[in-house]
């Protein structure tokens, strides 16, 4: 791919901080933010869920019931460098 294609893709992506909670009436702790590169907030949640972050482990890994709720906020840059997830 040429450099102009990478520049076009880079302009479409934004940094999102995604927080998860477990259970039907779970509360957000606020300390489990994961920074993700995505095109929109829905895709950021999908990327975290695809890798297993935000799944309720008490329900089981085979079950499709996802009780996790997501909270997303747009960030200027990655300020949580240990939680950056580069997956597609």
Task: Explain the layout of strands and helices.
Elements: H1 3-12, E1 14-21, E2 34-38, H2 41-50, E3 69-75, E4 84-85
Parallel strand pairs: 2-4
Antiparallel strand pairs: 1-2, 1-3
Question: What do you see in this structure?
Answer:
By secondary structure, this protein is of the alpha+beta class. It has helices spanning 3-12, 41-50, and strands spanning 14-21, 34-38, 69-75, 84-85. Helices cover 23% and strands 25% of the residues. The radius of gyration is 14 Å and the shape is elongated.
- Report the average pLDDT across residues: 71
Strands in their spatial order, largest beta sheet: 3-1-2-4
Count of discrete domains: 1
Query: What's the alpha carbon Rg, rounded to whole Å?
Result: 14 Å
User: Got a strand count?
Assistant: 4
Q: What is the 3D form?
A: elongated
Helix content: 10-25%
Helix count from the secondary structure assignment: 2
Approximately how much beta-strand content do the residues carry? 25-35%
Low-confidence stretches: 59-64
Assign the structural class, choosing from mainly alpha, mainly beta, alpha/beta, alpha+beta, or little secondary structure: alpha+beta
Order of helices and strands: HEEHEE
Largest sheet: 4 strands, mixed
Ends apart, CA distance between termini: 17 Å
